[in-house]
What does this fold into?
Amino acid sequence: MPDLDFAACCSEHEIHECAIERARRALPPERQVQRLADVFKAMGDPTRLRIILALRVGELCVCDLAAVLNMSQSAISHQLRILRGLHLVRNRREGKEVYYSLDDDHVISMLAQAADHVRHTLETEE
Amino acid sequence: MPDLDFAACCSEHEIHECAIERARRALPPERQVQRLADVFKAMGDPTRLRIILALRVGELCVCDLAAVLNMSQSAISHQLRILRGLHLVRNRREGKEVYYSLDDDHVISMLAQAADHVRHTLETEE
DNA sequence: TGAACATATGAGCAATCATTCATATGAATA
DNA sequence: TATTCATATGAATGATTGCTCATATGTTCA
It folds into this structure.
């Protein structure tokens, strides 16, 4: 009885079976992959990315962020909610205002790596 | 004549003007932000992220990837095109097959940082 | 050259998403 | 308490996106 999992693979799949198995084992469980993807996706929207970039140099209240990005307060609030849910930003109330700041240094590292990558690719081509 | 850029900000904006200016200067030019966002967005889709995760342990041809992710060849090809466009993966032809591998170590670093972040947030709450 | 296989790609569609608009919540102040 | 300001959020919508299906391209082998 053949392994149905390999049905979609190319015909000489016997050759790659071991590579396929190795790759399968390299995949984290579904839940973890989804979590990772959520973080990347959050940083993959220009508005949210700009929010993160702006907060690098210090905390800002919502209306400040709206001014910096030149966008509506509502739009900013909606995006902050997503970033908050993923613990990418943290908030602190002070009177009527709510101040947001980066929650985690990992975000800065990710930004730096991504920037390096972009810089690297721009050098190579174009 | 008031600065119209601050029109959307909260009324006591004089206090934050300097923070706003600082944040504005922290924002890279439009084109660069978009490039960064594109990279994060590419990694923000579970399918593309799984492709990257699978390629961590070595190159794979398209049909192998389809087998590993248990998805159609077409779906994988479409996503590989996006990853290729951003130089996240590279390809090499060998006869009829095309082998894909990670193009850049920065991707690995980003994955590691993101994984750390997720691990960290899971510890803190829930 | 023709058949078979591996991959790439265009069109179409269902699902997701970022914003807007209207409104609710929450805090300070008169 | 009533008003005002700052923020949050639900609903609606236009735009984007990931997949499928059909088909094109490119390679090998007979």
